[in-house]
Design brief:
heterodimer; A: mainly alpha; ABC transporter involved in vitamin B12 uptake, BtuC; two-stranded antiparallel ribbon; 77% helix; B: mainly alpha; 15 helices; 2 strands; 78% helix; globular
C-alpha cells in the first residue's frame, strides 16, 4: 500500500506537478480539520455536527481580534485557543453533558441544532458578507526548476502533522492522555480504576474546541470567511474519519492527503472542476457502504 | 367525548379551507409558506417514527422541485401533473438510494442522508444543458397565473394528503412495524417484521411526499436554483417545527409548524439577519429539556387532570 502511494505520487509529480502541490495543501487542511473531530468521536463518543461551525466561529473571532488590535492571525491564534477552550467547556457543560447517555438520535439532533445556532450567531454578529484578511506573506512562492508555486499553503499539512504528533504524544505519554484513551476504550472500566470520566470528557471536548478554533485562524489566513463556510468541513471531516476508522488518528492524515490530491486532480481538468466537490461524497458513500457490508458478512 | 374531537378537527379543516376568504395577500403568502414547511415537518417525522434520523429532506424537496419545473418547461404539461411527477421522481430516486443507504444506522445513516442534498445539488449544478446550471431555471409564469388563493389551496391540499398518509402510518400495521423497529430492531426482526422492506417503504413514501412538496414550491415560485431549491432551510425549519410540536405524532409537527411559522415570520421582520438563530436554539432546547414537544406536554397535563377527576 505505501509503495503504491509513493508510486502514484511520483507519477503525479511527473505528469501534473501542480496537482500534487495543490492536493497536498488541500488535503493537509482537510486532515487538520478532521483531527479534533476524531478526538471527540473517539473519546467522548459524540459525533459533533457543529465541528465546522466551531472552526468558522474561531476564524471570525480571530478576524475581529486582528482587525481591532492589528495583531497577526498567527498570534491571535493563541488568544482564540484559550478563549475557545473556555467556550468549549461551557458548551459541554450546558449541552453535550446531558445527552451523553441519551440515544444517538438526540446527540445528532443536539449538535445539529448547535451548528445552526453558531451559523446564525455569526450571521447576526457579522452579517453574511464575506470577510478576508489581507496578508502579504500568504503569497510567498518558491521556484523549483520551471515550477513556481505558493509555499504558504504547506502550512496546512505541516500543521496537520504537528497536531497529529502532539495528540499522539499526549495520548500516549501523559497521564491525562492515557486516562482519556482508557475512557475512550471503555468508560465503565475507566471509572472502575478511578479515572474521573466526566472530567476527561470535559477536558477532551474543550481541548478539541480550542484546537479547531486555532485551526480557524490558519484557515482565515488563506480563505475568505462567511457564516456557512464551516459546514462543508463537518461533512468532509466525518468522511475522513469514517474512511480511516474511528480511533485511527494517523489514518486521517493519509486519507486526507489522498482525498486532497484526488480533488485537485479532478479540478485540474478544465470544464469538469465543478465535479470536484463530488469526490468526497462519492467516496464517503462508497466507504460507508463497503464497511457496512463487510461488517454484515463478518 | 371522541366525537367532539372529530367535530373539532372538522371545524379546523373548514376554517383552514375558508382561510383565503378572510385574509389579505400578505397573510396568505405567509400561510402558504407555513403549510409547505408543515408538510415537510410531518413527512420528516414519519420516517423518524422508525428510529431513522434523516437529514435528507432538503435533498428530495429540491429534486422534486427541479423535476416538476423541468418537466413543465420541456413538455408544457398541466402544472399539477408536473408536481405529482416530481413526487414520482423523488420516489424512484429514494427507492434506489434507500436500498443502499438503509443498510446503515445511526450516525452513518444521518450523515449519508445529509450528504445526499449536497450530492444532488452538485449534480444539478454541473448539468447546465439540462438544469440551467448554477443560475437555475425560471418558469414563464407561476402556477394559477399567480392567484394566491388557489396556491394556498394547493399547499393545503398537499398538507391534507400528508396528514392522511401520516394517519395511515399511525393506524395500520405499519405503525406497529415502525414502532417496534424503533424500540428494538432485533426484537422486531425476530417477530417476523421485514425490517429492511418497511424502512425502504417509509423512506420512499416520505421522500415522494417531499418531492411533491418541492414540486409545488417550484411551481408556486416559478423558479428553481441549486442554492435556493436545496437550501438547508428546508431541513432546518421542518426539523425545528416537528421537534417543538412533538415527534412521533401527526399533531405535533402541525402544531409546531403553526407556532414556529408565525413566530419566525414575526422575527424575520424584527431581525433580518440571523433570525434563524431561533430555530437552532429550539432544536437544542427541545432535545435537552422537552423531548416530547408541545403536544407531549399538553397530553401529559390533560392525563394528569383526568386522573385527578377520577380520583375525586
Amino acid at each position: 500500500m505505501p509503495l503504491l502511494a509513493v508510486a502514484v505520487m511520483i507519477a503525479l509529480l511527473a505528469w501534473k506537478p501542480y496537482v500534487l502541490i495543490q492536493g497536498l495543501q488541500r488535503g493537509g487542511l482537510y486532515a487538520l480539520i478532521a483531527l479534533p473531530m476524531a478526538l471527540i468521536l473517539g473519546i467522548v463518543g459524540i459525533i459533533n455536527l457543529a465541528h465546522g461551525e466551531f472552526m468558522m466561529l474561531g476564524a471570525y473571532f480571530v478576524y475581529s481580534v486582528c482587525v481591532n488590535t492589528g495583531l497577526d492571525p498567527l498570534v491571535a491564534m493563541i488568544i482564540a485557543f484559550v478563549a475557545f477552550f473556555l467556550i468549549g467547556a461551557i458548551v459541554y457543560l450546558v449541552t453535550i453533558k446531558h445527552v451523553l447517555k441519551a440515544p444517538e438520535l438526540n446527540q445528532l439532533l443536539l449538535t445539529f441544532g448547535i451548528a445552526m445556532v453558531l451559523t446564525e450567531l455569526a450571521n447576526l454578529l457579522w452579517t453574511s458578507q464575506a470577510r478576508k484578511l489581507h496578508l502579504s506573506y500568504v503569497y510567498s512562492s518558491a521556484e523549483v526548476g520551471s515550477l513556481t508555486f505558493g509555499t504558504f499553503g504547506f502550512i496546512y499539512p505541516i500543521a496537520a502533522v504537528v497536531v497529529l504528533v502532539g495528540l499522539l504524544l499526549f495520548l500516549k505519554y501523559t497521564r491525562t492522555g492515557q486516562a482519556a484513551l482508557a475512557v475512550g476504550q471503555n468508560p465503565r472500566g475507566a471509572k472502575m480504576v478511578g479515572i474521573d470520566v466526566n472530567r476527561t470528557y470535559l477536558l477532551i471536548f474543550s481541548l478539541s474546541t480550542a484546537i479547531i478554533a486555532a485551526i480557524g485562524a490558519l484557515f482565515l489566513t488563506r480563505h475568505s470567511i462567511f457564516p456557512a463556510v464551516g459546514s462543508p468541513y463537518t461533512m468532509k471531516s466525518f468522511c475522513l474519519i469514517a474512511m480511516a476508522g474511528i480511533g485511527n488518528l494517523t489514518g486521517i492524515l493519509w486519507v486526507g492527503l489522498g482525498l486532497g490530491i484526488a480533488e485537485a486532480l479532478v479540478l485540474s481538468f478544465r470544464g469538469y472542476g465543478g465535479w470536484a466537490d463530488l469526490v468526497f461524497f462519492v467516496l464517503l458513500v462508497a466507504v460507508i457502504m463497503v464497511k457496512s457490508y463487510r461488517r454484515k458478512i463478518a | 367525548m371522541k366525537n367532539w374531537r372529530y367535530i373539532a378537527y372538522g371545524a379546523i379543516a373548514i376554517l383552514a379551507i375558508l382561510f383565503p376568504l378572510y385574509s389579505g395577500l400578505y397573510i396568505r403568502q405567509v400561510a402558504i409558506t407555513i403549510l409547505i414547511y408543515m408538510a415537510l415537518a410531518l413527512s420528516w417525522d414519519m420516517l423518524l417514527r422508525s428510529g431513522q434520523l434523516s437529514f435528507g429532506t432538503a435533498g428530495f424537496f429540491g429534486l422534486g422541485s427541479y423535476a416538476a419545473v423541468l418537466l413543465h418547461l420541456s413538455s408544457g404539461m398541466n402544472p399539477i401533473v408536473c408536481i405529482l411527477l416530481g413526487g414520482v421522481f423523488a420516489f424512484i430516486v429514494a427507492l434506489i438510494v434507500g436500498v443502499a443507504v438503509l443498510r446503515l444506522r445511526g450516525m452513518y445513516f444521518a450523515i449519508t442522508t445529509l450528504a445526499l442534498a449536497s450530492i444532488f445539488m452538485i449534480i444539478v449544478k454541473n448539468l447546465p444543458a439540462l438544469t440551467g446550471g448554477p443560475a437555475g431555471k425560471m418558469l414563464p409564469s407561476v402556477i394559477f397565473a399567480g392567484d394566491s388563493s388557489k396556491m394556498y389551496w394547493l399547499a393545503l391540499g398537499i398538507v391534507f394528503v400528508t396528514i392522511a398518509v401520516s394517519e395511515i402510518f399511525q393506524r395500520t400495521r405499519i405503525f406497529f412495524a415502525l414502532t417496534s423497529i424503533r424500540d428494538n430492531e432485533l426484537v422486531a426482526k425476530s417477530s417476523g417484521i421485514d425490517v429492511f422492506k418497511y424502512l425502504v417503504f417509509a423512506f420512499a413514501v416520505t421522500s415522494a411526499l417531499q418531492g411533491i412538496i418541492g414540486g409545488a414550491y417550484g411551481e408556486i415560485y416559478g423558479f428553481v436554483s441549486p442554492e435556493g431549491s436545496f437550501n438547508s432551510n428546508f431541513l432546518l425549519l421542518p426539523l425545528a417545527m416537528a421537534l417543538l410540536g412533538g415527534i412521533h405524532s401527526t399533531a405535533g409537527p402541525i402544531v409546531g409548524a403553526v407556532v414556529l411559522g408565525v413566530l419566525g415570520e414575526y422575527l424575520k421582520l424584527k431581525i433580518p439577519y440571523g433570525h434563524h438563530l431561533v430555530y437552532g436554539a429550539i432544536i437544542v432546547i427541545v432535545t435537552l429539556f422537552m423531548a416530547k414537544g408541545i403536544v407531549g406536554v399538553v397530553k401529559a397535563r390533560t392525563r394528569k387532570l383526568k386522573k385527578r377527576e377520577v380520583e375525586q
